[in-house]
């Protein structure tokens, strides 16, 4: 098949080329949106990532240009108008799972870097400043950690915190994981969890129920010095409330790999640009905030797995085989990774 691959970075080119099963790959740098949709004209398949915008107008343009398959190289599909895709006869496939270890390990790395001030120490040492004032951390051992969402990624984080570091671990999920229960993880409501933990790590999908699960009310009821880690979805946190909680010293530290308004920022080099998002800029000024640009998935293993599944999805479609990773129009709001 002739495939237009939007939003291509060097690593996409490398891993998708390596996993290619004889298709004609056209790597395009722009993100897919209404302005760039015409670049997809004449391609039977269009391959996209989390911040490409596939609304009804974009999909209609693609369908009119001969596109029949939308291949998402990510898990989430909340950026695709699935009803419009179905009405236009476009098939949508995705990569439902790829190396939860990549995200879980990055989550723990972020927590440890934040907690032990490693990001600040690194900057100091580069300036030949070896003073330790201001770098006092906390042991993970013995602290109470909460994991909201104990699916593929959250369960690995809970296990690591419990067995690897000796934290007391509370969890919250609509379904309980028997293996976590057996190792002594205690399930409680999200409300109880947020009141009882020193650290909370978010691993649930973004749904109407979980949107702003960390809000002013939750922060107000939390223990003083709460440390918040989010590698799941930005809008799980009300960023205004987060900034207020940091300013009042109620929140002890924040590590984020995702941000509510990240679509306008992440995955691009904006080092020569003026950032207009004042809230984001304020967040970056706190000494106890560590932000990365949605890179938790970025390991060789995960990228290889994403590329292999994407190419297998496309080959299955081309050969008329059943599509194990098809996303149909009934799918509700989904995780995004
Ligand atoms: P998963 O589907 O395996 O697990 C999600 C868990 O959340 C499930 O156990 C589900 O029951 C639970 N859940 C659903 N609603 C809930 C609620 N209201 N309260 C508490 N728990 C609830 O998903 P996963 O693969 O573990 O991914 C978790 C998150 O990580 C997703 O949001 C995904 O988008 C994100 N992610 C981020 C990156 C990154 O690079 N930062 C990469 C991959 C995935």
Write the layout of secondary structure elements.
Layout: E1 2-5, H1 10-19, E2 24-27, E3 45-48, H2 56-64, E4 69-72, H3 82-87, E5 91-93, H4 100-115, H5 118-126, E6 144-148, H6 152-164, E7 168-172, H7 178-182, E8 186-187, H8 190-196, E9 199-202, H9 216-221, E10 226-230, H10 239-247, E11 251-256, H11 278-284, E12 289-291, H12 300-318
Parallel strand pairs: 1-2, 1-3, 3-4, 4-5, 6-7, 6-9, 7-8, 9-10, 10-11, 11-12
Helix pairs in contact: 1-12, 4-6
Bound molecules: nicotinamide-adenine-dinucleotide (NAD).
Name the features.
12 helices, 337 residues, oxidoreductase, disordered C terminus, alpha/beta, D-lactate dehydrogenase, D-isomer_DH_CS, Rossmann fold, binds nicotinamide-adenine-dinucleotide, 12 strands, globular, seven-stranded parallel beta sheet, EC 1.1.1.28
